[in-house]
Amino acid sequence: EEPVLLAELKPGRPQRYDWKSSCETWSVAFSPDGAWFAWSQGHCVVKLIPWPLEEAELCKASERKSRGGKTEARSCGAAKEKTLECGQIVWGLAFSSWPEAEVGDTEPACAVGLPCLILATGLNDGQIKVWEVQTGHLLFSLLGHQDVVRDLSFAPNGSLILVSASRDKTLRVWDLSRDGRQVQVLSGHVQWVYCCSISPDCSMLCSAAGEKSALLWSMRSYTLIRRLEGHQSSVVSCDFSPDSALLVTASYDACVIMWDPYTGEQLRTLRHVPLHSAVDYSSEVHTSSLRSVCFSPEGLYLATVADDRLLRIWALELRSPVAFAPMTNGLCCMYFPHGGFIATGTRDGHVQFWTAPRVLSSLKHLCRKALRTFLTTYQVLALPIPRKLKEFLTYRTF
């Protein structure tokens, strides 16, 4: 079933803006609970939209688009959407929850007894600004990077640890629970760092730069675990599976490589080839250069965006895409936390929402996912169980 375009958000075009403030949407993000959506719509602006939890709302927006022509950004949560004026071009976005405040707590983020949502924004001048979503108040300005903050990743365990990736060739670790203190500077890349991703179990960090290898770091000791070598061109995007057992990296070489992060073994390569034979294969590497890859929430699908103007959806067990959708100038993609659709950002500042396969996970996969959440590959291999079962639990049965 091919992805269907449900809705499209378009930025306003204010007349008076510095020409350097491009309108590209380099980052989109859903809050962990799926209640908010953020997109860097260009012109130094981030839009925050309270998100409808039911797909029916998206369908209504799509119907309004088809009946009346254009769908404005106000079609989803018009009365409550917020605009954050960041003062610089926005490259990276990441949500996290701030724990409930207690009596006597002086933190500015939350009212007593209420958790709140925060959004970190990575900016063109190297700053990271952290905002409280409900009020739009600026909580922190984190200083340290010397160039564009290209990507951001919060530890999923709610510890308020934030990792930033920058064009200054470093990653930095910040602790927002300690007033935004810089905990560590990770050096090892020799090119701009494009992407960073913390594993769901918070044990590992993957970073991708303009290099042929991705780097895997320990989130406990902040030391380099290994280099993942296998791509033929710059690695630009990475993501962990929901159980932390798999890692995918996407490169300008038009390939996605699936890795076992514990052993460094390459498990599978997904090649982005032209859909039509009429396409000039000599330009394949250029036209199919990848921009973004992400796992679906249940861990059975991948989505990729490439320069050949296609959104592809891949099933974990197959080497060819199961669905395609035409999109122009795609830069990033992200699944809705509860599944069912994908958000993509484009060079012209638009955000598009596409249907994605809904799947009922098998009992086998649910058991594997539950076990792999707390067992490493080495621990699985040490279990006194049949070899075929070990192969299944370590994703070697593709």
From TrEMBL:
First and last residues of every WD repeat: 119-141, 142-177, 186-227, 228-269, 283-317
Q: Which GO terms describe its biological process?
A: intracellular signal transduction; protein polyubiquitination
Asked whether the keyword Repeat is assigned, the reply is: yes
InterPro entries linked: SOCS_box (IPR001496), SOCS_box-like_dom_sf (IPR036036), WD40/YVTN_repeat-like_dom_sf (IPR015943), WD40_PAC1 (IPR020472), WD40_repeat_CS (IPR019775), WD40_repeat_dom_sf (IPR036322), WD40_rpt (IPR001680), WSB_SOCS-box_domain (IPR051983)
Q: Which residues form the SOCS box domain?
A: 362-398
Q: Which domain of life is it from?
A: Eukaryota
Q: Which UniProt keywords apply?
A: Repeat, Ubl conjugation pathway, WD repeat
PROSITE patterns assigned to the protein according to its UniProt record, in alphabetical order: SOCS, WD_REPEATS_1, WD_REPEATS_2, WD_REPEATS_REGION
Give, as in the UniProt entry, the pathway in which the protein acts.
Protein modification; protein ubiquitination
List the Pfam families: SOCS_box, WD40
Q: What is this protein called?
A: WSB2 protein
Q: Origin organism of this chain? A: Bucorvus abyssinicus (Northern ground-hornbill)
Q: Supply the source organism's classification.
A: Eukaryota, Metazoa, Chordata, Craniata, Vertebrata
Q: Which gene encodes it?
A: Wsb2
